[in-house]
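Marked as duplicate of an earlier ticket. Keeping the data here for the record.
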Amino acid sequence: MKSIGKVEKETITTKGTVKETRYYITSLTDEEKFAKSVRGHWSIENNLHWMLDAVLGEDKSRARKGNAPINLNIMRKFVLTLLGKLNTGRPRDSLRTKMYKIAMTPKKWLTELFKIA
């Protein structure tokens, strides 16, 4: 630990302005590197959450009790990892296209998945 970083965020919504302050313990001492690191981290987080929702419909999930929400989240992340590794023949296939192809010919793709693992 070399420093403590502070990020202040202000969001303007239809209901008003929301201010948020976050603190980070970091080994970075350069302000520009710290700011870039924080933005990069949230970019990765936002992209992951977007993929979980847009591709796998996580926000529509009705699981709310016990371990179900965390178990389903882990399974969805596992599925995204496998879909990312799966080669469906065309390098530009979206994850939804890959899921469709798997649904149409599951035996073929299950065999392919076991070759990856």
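See parent ticket for discussion. The chain has four helices and two strands.
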